[in-house]
Amino acid sequence: MTFLCHSAATTAARRMTMLQPSAKAFDCNIRSIYTMAISRELPNSFGGALSQHFEESSADNGDVQQFLDMEKARQQHKTYISELRKVVPTLVLPALEDFPDCSFVEDTVVAIGNRALITNPGHESRRGEVDSIREVLEQLGMEVVDMRTIGKNKNKIFSAHCDGGDVMYTGRHLFVGLSDRTNYEGIKMIEQVFPDVPLIPVLPVAQGKQVLHLKSAVTHLNETTLLAPSDPIGHKVLRAMRANELGYEAIRVPDILACNAVVVDGTVLVQDTKCETTRQALQSITEKLNLELRFVDTSELAKKDAALTCCSVLLSL
């Protein structure tokens, strides 16, 4: 994530004081059991997908040349979908060749229960991905709201932007990260569409090129347990989320890529890792929570700023 400078972050902090959690009761009719998932095939144009954060991080580590193995990326993507299909029915949409990032469907929508908010992605090159997602969700009978129609300013410009990767619904709270892909106006739109869910805005406090979205640094295993890196990035993000104050336990692991987990009805899919400390910590906590742990290698997809959650949208219909 390219984080805001100090002055911009200070301004954002002032604006977001107005976005503290609502006192409204949580809508208990919103289900937390997923009944289907949506994914999309990897396009042949995937080599042209955005990759700023991975490339910058690699350059910092002295590895300037990062070549994408397209066949390996395709196989990893297929394996992810195969693992996902073992736990939830998954609709795989055809690739959109004009949009190299189209497989990262998570960024196109925020969905809770039967209501979906179509986003206006933060990067201009990705904004053509959302129309086909909207069509599918409408065909599924969901109540669909489009950020592009309600997020215009007085000059009729789409001022609200959001990537779904910045939005994490734990079942109790809706955490939304402010970033260069999700702005203050986008957060306000989310609050309007999901007024019964307490929304927690998260300032972009964690410096580091490994973090593109909020969920690049933290995801959840259940309604009270978070997964976050053990380095300063994790500490800063958890503090910005007010995680301890809100009653969350944070499981901290060294490998930040393994902090991006997909939890589907008792099964946890997580990025495969060579870090033994991380593997042992994940195995221990999933056993404690009676969850099934499965490691999935998406290292090649990560060269295009991907994480596991990017590759699917989970629905509770």
> How far apart are the first and last residues' alpha carbons, in Å?
32 Å
Strand order within the widest sheet? Answer: 2-1-15
Percent in strands: 15-25%
**Portion in helices:** 25-40%
Explain what the structure shows:
The protein is α/β, with parallel strands linked by helices. It is built from eight helices and 15 strands. It has helices at residues 6-16, 52-60, 70-85, 130-139, 147-150, 184-193, 232-241, 276-288; strands at 36-40, 90-93, 109-112, 115-118, 143-146, 167-169, 174-177, 199-202, 219-220, 225-229, 249-253, 261-264, 267-271, 292-296, 313-315. The longest helix has 16 residues, at 70-85. It is globular.
Overview features:
single chain, alpha/beta, 3-stranded mixed beta sheet
Short description:
The chain has 317 residues and is α/β, with parallel strands linked by helices. Helices cover 26% and strands 19% of the residues.
List the helices and strands and how they pair.
Layout: H1 6-16, E1 36-40, H2 52-60, H3 70-85, E2 90-93, E3 109-112, E4 115-118, H4 130-139, E5 143-146, H5 147-150, E6 167-169, E7 174-177, H6 184-193, E8 199-202, E9 219-220, E10 225-229, H7 232-241, E11 249-253, E12 261-264, E13 267-271, H8 276-288, E14 292-296, E15 313-315
